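Internal tracking record. Fields below are filled automatically when a chain is submitted to the structure queue. Please do not edit lines marked as system-generated. If the sequence contains nonstandard residues, flag them in the REMARKS field before resubmitting.
Queue: standard
Priority: normal
Entity type: single polypeptide chain
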Amino acid sequence: MKQIKTCLAIAVLALSASAANAADLEVKTPWVRGTVAGQKATGAFMELASPAGTVIVGAASPAAGVTEIHEMKMDDGVMKMRAIPRLDVPAGKPVSLVPGGYHVMLMDLKQPLKKGDIVPITLQVESKDKKVESVEIKAEVRELTATPATPAAGNQHGHMKH
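SYSTEM-GENERATED OUTPUT FOLLOWS
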């Protein structure tokens, strides 16, 4: 049963990456950090790339009441998190959405997210000609303590831009 669940998760992730290519955006290894009972927010993480360059201008998920693109960065020695209206994905330069950096923030969660769940997320992608397309991805929920370096996370380190 566990093997079937793993195979299904891999198939879903592969399909989400190929669907993302339609908007000149490649999405690799999307995942969401699991939650505990009563927790109302978590982050979604992934690697983004675009051959021609694009901009993420919004996000949505039926798993959350509010979905935003966020950044975390040091400001006068204090780590601060804030919503950002746009996230550039420069041509040929991957952008990593990772804990402690850029990420998709899922707030007002409808229910706890447990390891193995699949969370649908829609990214709003604006091309150079200002056309906005929706990119549907499916992100697997990992353990609450998961980091990009955990198994199956792929090579997601580096590439963070501010």
